Amino acid sequence: MSSGDRPAAVLFDMDGTLVDTEGLWWDACVEVADGLGLSLGEADREALFGLSVEDAALHITHALHIAGASGARPVEAMLTDAFTTRLESGVTMLPGAVALLEALRAAGIPAGLVSASPRPVVDLVLETVGGHRFRLSVAAGDSARNKPAPDPYLAAAARLGVDPAACVAIEDSPTGVASARSAGCAVIVVGPAGAVSGVTAVPTLESVDLPLLRGLVPDPAAVTPRT
User: Fold this and answer.
1) How many CB atoms are closer than 10 A to CB 174?
2) In the prediction, which pLDDT does 198 show?
3) Considering only CA atoms, which of 119, 124, 113, 197 is closest in space to residue 153?
4) 176-181 long-range contacts, CB within 8 A, separation 24+
5) 125 Cβ partners below 8 Å, 6+ apart?
6) Residue 143: predicted pLDDT
7) What does 157-187 look like in DSSP terms, one character per residue?
8) Residue 27 above 90 pLDDT?
9) N or C: which end of the chain has fewer CB within 10 A?
10) 210 Cβ contact list (under 8 Å, min separation 6)
11) 3-state SS assignment for residue 106
């Protein structure tokens, strides 16, 4: 692999990383919780940040003292519907997203979308931001486990036919960072999630360019083989 080939792929989280949907997600959670007689507070907002729909539903049902996944499934559906309704009006790409995706395409580096959101949500966002910009997308249900498990990133790398260790994942939440790191990807965390040990942090995607991405993936030619 030459320096121009690194990284083998760049794998993007969606909500809060590429598109400005975190506020819409919070509004959807508040609407569903209110309908169930639960008032969410700032602590809930922090807890729900970066969670999958499944885990968000469990958070809400746990607060309502409803036990078990079966009790959470109707809440999952309500959250998906409430979130999708808000997305139908369109979403805004975050600063630097389009420029970075275009730079990757010009360099011949595949971009993948790896989201914890359900497939209907992912497809709706892709209609707005341009599915042609991504070689593939992985949504909730496309792998055995969702984030923070490594499965979504492992699935994306496998479908691209590349080593996860040769990929850079770009995330905005502790849940997503944990998923990408456990898959073996190099990781960039964007935005207010804060510093994470061993992870490159940037304020926005405007700070991410090809030299930074290439510097996060070792050049195999520079690695001395083990004997």
Assistant:
1) 15
2) 78
3) 113
4) 176/13, 176/17, 176/50, 176/116, 176/147, 176/148, 178/147, 178/148, 179/147, 179/148, 179/149, 179/150, 179/151, 179/152, 179/153, 180/11, 180/114, 180/150, 180/153
5) 14, 19, 21, 87, 91, 117
6) 96
7) HHHHT--GGGEEEEESSHHHHHHHHHHT-EE
8) yes
9) C
10) 103, 104, 107, 109
11) helix
Task: Kindly report the pTM of this predicted structure.
Answer: 0.86
Pick the closest to residue 103 from 31, 216, 206, 178 (CA basis).
206
Look-up of token digits 């609407």: 31
Report residue 56 as tokens.
Answer: 């968000």
Which element (helix H / strand E) includes 117? strand 111-118
Tokens for 93? 């790409």
Q: Could you report the per-residue pLDDT of 99-126, keeping only the tens digit for each?
A: 999 999 999 999 999 999 999 999 999 9
Q: Residue 148: is the preceding peptide bond cis (ω within 30°)?
A: yes
Q: Which two tokens stand for residue 84?
A: 């999708």
Q: Classify residue 63 by burial, with Cβ atoms within 10 Å: 0-12, 13-18, 19+.
A: middle
> Cα(117)–Cα(139) distance, rounded to whole angstroms?
6
> Helix (H, G, I), strand (E, B), or coil: what is residue 92?
coil
The two structure tokens encoding residue 9 = 């792929």
Q: What are 206's two structure tokens?
A: 């405007």
Lookup: tokens for 126: 């892709």
Q: Are 137 and 15 in contact (CB under 8 A)?
A: no
